[in-house]
Amino acid sequence: MKKLVKLSYIKKLHGHMEADNGFIQVLLGPRQVGKTTSTLHLLSQHFKATSDYISLEKVFNPGPEFIVENWSRAHKDKKILVIDEIQKCESWSETIKFLYDENKRLGIKTRVVLLGSSSLEIQKGLTESLTGRFQLIQAHHWNFDESNRGYKLSLDECLKFGGYPGSYPLIEQHDSWVEYLKNSIVGTVVEKDILQYQSVRSPALFRQAFEIIVGYPAQEISYTKLLGQIQDRGNVELVKHYLRLYEGAFLIKTIEKYSNKIVKTKTSSPKILPLAPCLYYLTVIDDYQSDEQGRAFELLVGAQLVRTGWPLYYWRQGKDEVDFVLKKGRRLWAIEVKSGRKKSAKGLMKFKTEFPQASPVIITKDNYIQFEKDPLAFLER
Question: Widest CA span of the chain, in angstroms?
């Protein structure tokens, strides 16, 4: 049964809109995680008479004049302008910059919210044209608590199917669920958020690479090994390019090895973190073996750590390893995830020896719910 779930990023957006501080509000995140639905609900509940919502998803080839026209109308009516799928408009960032700066010159407070799902395209526009003019709010895949409150998913179900709430009604129809994930989620993201905006030499190879990449959940893997798996004659720069594109579309997160030396961190083999368990499960499509379930739980924990917004790493020295290292200012946590996989705590002890300021933390299924509720509070206790 579907139930309305209050998402943390919508609460943050609401607060920013109420503050009316003159900054452009930018809500950015994966497709099909409730950005539009939750924003529309927020508008209907709190800004029904004071907002105009438009989606460029249904507008054919929108140009700058489309933004200008709607911006002017909203300003005239003293309303908040909310534009969904902003990346679909040609020269959107330059147009928004011009209008924002004109408002500032005239002493008019800007009241605009932008929504989008193509991170690379939008980030480019934000950094090139809108620096200092916006506040970024990050949307995320659904975690266990959200999935449980909205659709009664158990933790074990979340480790397989978690991430995209639109797929949850299809869980009992296994083949339909797989088809929906592959076509309506992954396929759409690849086509609309990556290939439509980015140059990729071999689109077919690029699509094939995704299944290979997410088949190494929460695992350290060398660029050379990935290149061999993809079976391309290119070099490791091709693999790095692919990873950047998939990361920019909110499908994965690559984390680097922790080191006091920046050069070593940047040249390390990455650890690949699919940002939703269902993306990994697509490569399994069967009951998890103990080791596979352990990996799925590890990436679920990793996705929550990504939500904190602080730098996230892993660590390994010889046979000693730490699943995640989170750095917040001077604070440093060495985080070990324990579930189905047999693992030693030697890595935590070795890391503590190397970095005495680090606080060791162990996360299990028994304390996961407490951790997920507020990851930083859990680590800082």
Answer: 65
Residue with tokens 């992954």: 186
Helix (H, G, I), strand (E, B) or coil at 6: coil
d(CA 202, CA 192): 16
Residues 119 and 160 in one domain: no
Question: What is the secondary structure of 75-144 as a DSSP string?
Answer: HHTT-EEEEESGGGSTTHHHHHHHHHHHHHHHTPPP-EEEEES-HHHHHHHHHHH-TTSEEEEE-----H
Q: Contact, 30 vs 275, CB < 8 A? A: yes
Instruction: Write down the pTM of the prediction.
Output: 0.92
250 Rama sector, left if φ>0, alpha if ψ -120 to 50, beta otherwise: left
| Residues 218 and 268 occupy one common structural domain | yes
Contact 276, 143 (CB under 8 A): no
Co-location of 128 and 150 in the same domain: no
Structural domain harbouring 133: 8-138
The whole-angstrom separation of Cα 10 and Cα 317 is 41
59: CB partners within 8 A, 6+ apart: 66, 88
Distances (CA, A) of 111 to 8, 114, 135, 351: 21, 10, 12, 48
One domain, residues 168 and 254: yes
Mean per-residue pLDDT pooled into runs of 10, the chain (381 residues): 82 96 96 95 96 92 94 95 93 96 94 88 88 96 97 97 97 96 95 89 90 92 89 82 94 94 70 97 92 95 97 95 96 92 81 96 97 97 88
The dihedrals phi and psi of 356, each to the nearest 5 degrees, come to -60, -25
What is the DSSP code (8-state) at residue 260? Answer: S
Three-state SS at 218: coil
DSSP class per residue in 130-145: -TTSEEEEE-----HH
Residues 235 and 287 in one domain: yes
